[in-house]
Amino acid sequence: MTLDEVEREVAIQLVITADEEPRVGLESQLSAAKRNLESWNSVDVNAPRSSQSLNALLHERPPYGARGWSEVLRRVQKRARALIRIFDEAILHQVQIRFFSVDLARELDGRHWESSGQSGVVTIANALEAPHALAVQIPAGIPYAFALTHLTVQNRRALCTLLWTKKAMPSPSVLIWSDTDGQWLCSARRRGFAEVTAKLLACSAPHHASANDAHNEVWVEISAAPADLIVLSAGGQANQRVRAEYNAKKKNRCCTWCRAVANQYQEVSISFESDARLQQACIGRH
Questions:
Q1: CA distances, 76 to each of 72, 150, 285 (Å)
Q2: What is the pLDDT of residues 209-252, one digit of tens each?
Q3: Distance between CA atoms of 55 and 45, rounded to whole angstroms?
Q4: Pick from 251, 253, 216: nearest CA to 234
């Protein structure tokens, strides 16, 4: 299944609760999501599908180092349940829930990193706040569940969080790249995002410092940041290859889990005074 085919399926499943109170609409969606998520338990992941694209997908090697598609399904269920619990807690305690859309930001020009969120504190660099409660439904059965776990889909919609140190941009800041593929950077640079990159103090390594070519655009952007930029890698899979550019940071990099040499996580901290300082050296040689 191609990325374009998956995106069409996402668009079909998009729900816009424009005619009802957002909280009520979200509760209704969550209720349906819980029912449909449980329906996955009775699905035979190896059974032939009516969709030729999905049949082709099931013959591919499972992503993320999984031993089979059943394991992928269990991981998706686990993460979906965790997200639903977070929504439930937010609703229970009357916490405001805000939705941000990468697709909306792609359609509308602007310096989104300056206003999407709480300016002067934290913003989303690559998304706009959605005017309605937007959500992708969890389908009953599994018609496209596996396709939606494809790395390219997650990468394209990953949100990037910008932590401000002053009330105005551009200012020294910290950027959490998450799993983004960085395709949004092409248009962001034309709108002045290079000013943000030029003042970065620290950032996360995209997708756990994975060597996957899907993150090339992000590493191009990181190369334009100050030479003393601190880069942190969080988590990852034990068999995941590490990006050469990450290793090249030497004393200015550190992992929460040095997967090649350690079997447990470590706490990583940075102090921010006149500049950013990494409080410990990375124990891994990668």
A1: 6, 11, 32
A2: 888 888 999 999 999 999 999 999 988 777 778 889 998 988 88
A3: 10
A4: 253
